[in-house]
């Protein structure tokens, strides 16, 4: 399997705090890769590092066999699109104008609205189901609609790689599924590689073709969810006792946390065995 | 094909040739024409009104060289440079304001509120007191003063921040610099002090073609750079990560446009003294009039030019024969505008 996007010996740090240390990772082409892990495990940091949002303290990110830093800014943006957490929509901007901004890496000072731009924006809006909203003010949309519009913007970049940082956060369950279904549709053609950071392990198991489980800045396991997710992995990553059963709807692994009493007894037993390595929950 | 796919995007008219393709925003075109007409009308008023009343025909005669000596002196020597100076200085302030506001992602981040203008005054005063001024010394002093203030304010703020912190830092910086400016004036001899004081008011009075030429050259060099960076600034408004994701070289854009903004405000302030309100209001009014969302560098420049010319015409003729400096007029209007803006931000809970 080939990997257009990968990192070797990647160390990422904010100021003095090192979040990720000497990590190797490769994103399988054509996969829907989902990164999961507990809060502050460095999953968003890894995504931001892969998308050249953070300059590595050591190591490198490779895009299409060249260091990502060797490309011009717009050149990277024509190969890899990224939707960060909580982007800010300018006051009073319409849906069409926001989606059209995704065309920036394909435009120049004189060529600002080519036929290709128009087609890409139209296709992105159709794929995300926001074509009807074209003239609406982004600020007046619901959270779920707004997230679709942002995804349309990065889709308009027409890149083979699409990175999404927690695209379902702050959305209710219906909108979460809506966004994940959209991601699955975008992935379905097989030409696009999607990478997303998600919180919900069951969602990750349902939608991901490749799962990366992280803890404390390191990768604990990776592979298809059906092959790697079991009770031991969930305990190793999230520190909770659970049962993993086949999802009655999809057959993918489904995590059912143990009852409160069971988890408490389990925690006490662990504490008696090894007083130092007590994990939460 | 379904109907949704064939329906044209509501982009408005699009102009496409082999090398150029742009969306034409009807409202922007209309508003630009309206502003140009406003500038022409104000310019005509400024050229004809005054102690020495002239008709439009006489003004045109003087401009084309067929007027009397007195008419030529009044038009070419007194009124024309004043009108052109108001236009170029207003444009420089408008563009500078647009740059700073979008860099800080804050509508209150105008050079006058942040103390940049007072800093420019400090630099210019140092030049006036120490080396006796002159256009070159004052200009370099004002640019250096603006740059130092911008660096200090940037360090104090550390990135994009909400309205109140910005205003508080601005008040602090303004107070320190104003005190320093007073100190400089008190320490110097009377004639220098009077010259400095009259400059500090922010007036177009007694300026001439020299100042016009300096500011016009600065505009010719800097505005194209700012305009080319306008789209990148616009994308920066969505957050550094979004902008970088779309292929904007974030750091380079920030440094280039910051330097352009500093130079424009410095040059404008050196020419006429500190003028309030224009840099604060022009970008926002431009966005409202044009119905656009970005920094609209060129639109802000056009509106700044119209605002300052309007301020000067009003200042000269509103309570004639008493003349108010343009800076006083714009400060009075700007104070009201600022109160309104703060009240609005307050209600929005920022």
Question: What does this protein look like?
Answer:
The complex is a heterodimer of chains A (281) and B (350). In chain A, 34% of the residues lie in helices and 25% in strands. With 281 residues, chain A is an alpha/beta fold. Chain A has helices at 43-50, 73-79, 95-100, 115-127, 143-155, 173-188, 201-207, 225-228, 231-238, 260-273; strands at residues 5-14, 17-27, 32-36, 58-63, 66-67, 80-83, 161-165, 193-197, 210-215, 218-223, 242-246, 253-257. Chain A is globular, with a radius of gyration of 20 Å. In chain A, strand 7 (161-165), helix 6 (173-188) and strand 8 (193-197) form a beta-alpha-beta unit. In chain A, the strands form three sheets. Chain A has a six-stranded mixed β-sheet, sandwiched between helices. In chain A, strands 2-1-4-5 form a four-stranded antiparallel β-sheet, covered by helices on one side. Chain B has 350 residues and is an all-alpha fold. Chain B has one domain: Orthogonal Bundle (ABC transporter involved in vitamin B12 uptake, BtuC), CATH 1.10.3470. Chain B is built from 14 helices and two strands. In chain B, strands 1-2 form a two-stranded antiparallel ribbon. In chain B, helix 6 packs across helix 11 and helix 9 (209-236) runs antiparallel to helix 11 (250-272). Chain B is globular. Chain B starts with a helix and ends with a helix. In chain B, 48% of the residues are buried. The model of chain B has no long low-confidence stretch (mean pLDDT 86).
- Strand % of chain A is 15-25%
CATH class (first level) name of chain B: Mainly Alpha
Strand order of the largest sheet of chain A: 6-7-8-3-9-10
Shape of chain B: globular
Q: Return residue spans of chain B where pLDDT drops below 50 for at least 5 consecutive residues.
A: none
Q: What percent strand of chain B?
A: under 5%
Overall pLDDT level of chain A: 92
Q: Residue share in helices of chain B?
A: over 70%
Separation of termini of chain B?
Answer: 47 Å
The shape of chain A, in one word, is globular
Radius of gyration of CA atoms of chain B, rounded to a whole number: 21 Å
- Describe the main β-sheet of chain A briefly: 6 strands, mixed
Secondary structural class of chain A: alpha/beta
Count the helices of chain A. How many? 10
Most extensive interface between two protein chains, with residue counts = A-B, 48 and 32 residues
Q: What helical percentage do the residues of chain A reach?
A: 25-40%
């Amino acid at each position: 399997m080939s990997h257009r996007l990968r990192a070797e010996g990647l160390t990422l740090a904010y100021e003095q705090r090192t979040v990720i240390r000497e990590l190797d990772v490769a994103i399988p082409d054509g996969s829907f890769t989902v990164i999961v892990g507990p809060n502050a495990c460095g999953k968003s940091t890894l995504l931001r590092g892969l998308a050249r949002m953070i300059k590595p303290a050591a190591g490198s990110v490779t895009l299409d066999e060249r260091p990502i830093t060797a490309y011009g800014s717009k050149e990277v943006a024509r190969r890899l699109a990224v939707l960060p957490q909580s982007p800010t929509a300018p006051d009073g901007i319409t849906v069409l104008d926001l989606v059209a901004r995704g065309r920036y890496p394909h435009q120049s000072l004189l060529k600002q609205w080519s036929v290709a731009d128009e087609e890409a924006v139209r296709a992105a809006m159709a794929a995300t189901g926001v074509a009807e909203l074209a003239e609406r003010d982004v600020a007046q949309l619901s959270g779920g609609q707004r997230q679709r519009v942002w995804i349309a913007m990065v889709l308009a970049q027409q890149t083979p790689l699409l990175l999404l940082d927690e695209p379902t956060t702050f959305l209710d369950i219906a909108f979460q599924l809506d966004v994940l279904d959209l991601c699955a549709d975008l992935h379905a053609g097989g030409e696009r590689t999607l990478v997303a950071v998600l919180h919900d392990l069951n969602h990750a198991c349902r939608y991901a073709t490749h799962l990366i489980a992280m803890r404390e800045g390191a990768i604990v396991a990776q592979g298809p969810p059906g092959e790697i997710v079991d009770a031991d992995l969930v305990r190793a990553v999230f520190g909770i006792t659970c049962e993993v059963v086949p999802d009655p709807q999809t057959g993918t692994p489904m995590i059912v946390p143990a009852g409160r009493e069971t988890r408490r007894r389990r925690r006490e037993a662990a504490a008696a065995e090894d007083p130092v390595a007590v994990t939460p929950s | 094909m379904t109907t949704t796919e064939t329906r044209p995007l509501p982009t408005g008219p699009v102009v496409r040739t082999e090398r150029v393709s742009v969306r034409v925003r009807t409202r922007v075109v209309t508003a630009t024409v309206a502003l140009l007409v406003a500038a022409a009308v104000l310019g005509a008023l400024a050229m004809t009104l005054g102690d020495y009343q002239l008709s439009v025909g006489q003004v045109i005669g003087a401009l084309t060289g067929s007027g009397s000596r007195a008419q030529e002196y009044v038009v070419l020597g007194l009124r024309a440079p004043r009108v052109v100076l108001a236009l170029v200085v207003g444009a420089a302030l408008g563009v500078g304001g647009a740059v700073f506001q979008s860099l800080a992602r804050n509508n209150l981040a105008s050079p006058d509120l942040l103390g940049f203008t007072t800093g420019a005054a400090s630099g210019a005063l140092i030049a006036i007191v120490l080396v006796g001024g002159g256009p070159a010394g004052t200009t370099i002093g004002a640019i250096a003063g603006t740059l130092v203030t911008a660096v200090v304010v940037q360090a104090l703020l550390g990135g994009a921040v909400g309205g109140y912190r910005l205003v508080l830092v601005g008040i602090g910086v303004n107070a320190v610099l104003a005190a320093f400016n007073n100190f400089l004036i008190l320490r110097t001899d009377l004639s220098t002090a009077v010259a400095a004081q009259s400059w500090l008011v922010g007036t177009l009075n007694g300026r001439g073609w020299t100042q016009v030429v300096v500011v016009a050259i600065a505009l010719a060099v800097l505005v194209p750079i700012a305009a080319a960076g306008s789209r990148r600034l616009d994308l920066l408004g969505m957050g550094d990560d979004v902008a970088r994701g779309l292929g904007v070289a974030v750091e380079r854009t920030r440094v280039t446009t910051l330097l352009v903004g500093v130079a424009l405000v410095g040059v404008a302030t050196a020419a006429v003294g500190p003028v309030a309100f224009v840099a604060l209001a022009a970008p926002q009014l431009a966005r409202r009039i044009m119905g656009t969302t970005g920094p609209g560098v060129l639109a802000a420049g056009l509106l700044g030019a119209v605002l300052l010319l309007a301020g000067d015409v009003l200042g000269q003729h509103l309570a004639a024969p008493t003349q108010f400096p343009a800076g006083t007029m714009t400060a009075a209007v700007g104070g009201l505008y600022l109160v309104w803006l703060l009240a609005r931000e307050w209600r929005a809970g920022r």
